[in-house]
Amino acid sequence: MLAVSAPLYRDLPWRGIDDPYAVLVSEIMLQQTQVVRVERFWRRFLEDFPTIDALAAAAVPDVLERWQGLGYNRRALALKRTADQCAAENAGCLPATYEGLLALPGIGPATAAGVMAFAYQQPGLYLETNVRAVFLHELFPDEEQVSDRVLEPLVRAAAFHPVAAADLRRWYYGLLDYGAHLKATVPNPSRRSASHSRQSTFEGSRRQKRAWVVRRVLAAPEGVKATQVLVDLEHTEREAGRPEVGEELFASIVDDLVSEGFFRRVGQVLVP
């Protein structure tokens, strides 16, 4: 078993809690987002939406507005849809099984395993990026392109070991702390994973334009004409020294955002 020394301990606000909903919010927020940013949003989000029923009762624009600054807004919509489903079908509770969690919108294997471990103290395959870094560093120090298929049985076996299973929450947080420490002190072991990929540049990307359009529409509670949003977006892009967006790309972005539920289109007007 790996030992993690006290100085590596991170005093995170969601650490040690057993509320499945609060754990899920932290796990969703931590996807592709730095811990320091999530710390600023997690408490505020739970103050506004303290329960699944509260999130289900909230309007989508309000949820998206509270999410602004975290990025990857699809996560907020998936979390809202999960709350809607649980409020309607499960008395405002999350499922207490891995399979039940996986069936909910936006919850993948790692997120489901994280909720099972941290909320329910149930062992499973929680192969998160920091966990991956630990196993690569300790067990495959000289190997490149190590696949998750190689790591998965090792992570699972460790979680079911009697010492880890006795306090699974502590075990996995120890791994997460150690993984974060490794990334800060040695070349990131995760780069030797076959699944590692560099995050694409945000500025100038389609994702950046999507986020801008969402913010622009949410800032107009009564709605705003699509043509005006395009004019404003083009101005923003020119000010940043980037090429114009063009009607075709803009229409494609708007179509995607409408179909994904970020806002509605009423004639030529985009409405939160």
Describe the structure.
- By secondary structure, the chain is mainly alpha-helical.
- It has 14 helices and 3 strands.
- It has 2 domains: 9-192, Endonuclease III, domain 1, CATH 1.10.340.30; 206-271, Winged helix-like DNA-binding domain superfamily/Winged helix DNA-binding domain (Arc Repressor Mutant, subunit A), CATH 1.10.10.
- Helix content is 58%, strand content 3%.
- It has a 3-stranded antiparallel β-sheet.
- β2 and β3 form a beta hairpin.
- The relative contact order is 0.10.
How many strand units? 3
CATH architecture of the largest domain: Orthogonal Bundle
Rg on CA atoms, Å:
21 Å
Corresponding CATH superfamily of the largest domain: Hypothetical protein, domain 2
Structural class: mainly alpha
Number of domains: 2
Determine the strand fraction and express it as a percent band: under 5%
Shape: globular
Write down the CATH class of the largest domain.
Mainly Alpha
Question: How is the CATH topology of the largest domain named?
Answer: Endonuclease III, domain 1
**Could you describe the largest sheet, including whether it forms a barrel?**
3 strands, antiparallel
Total count of helical runs of at least 4 residues: 14
- The mean pLDDT is 92
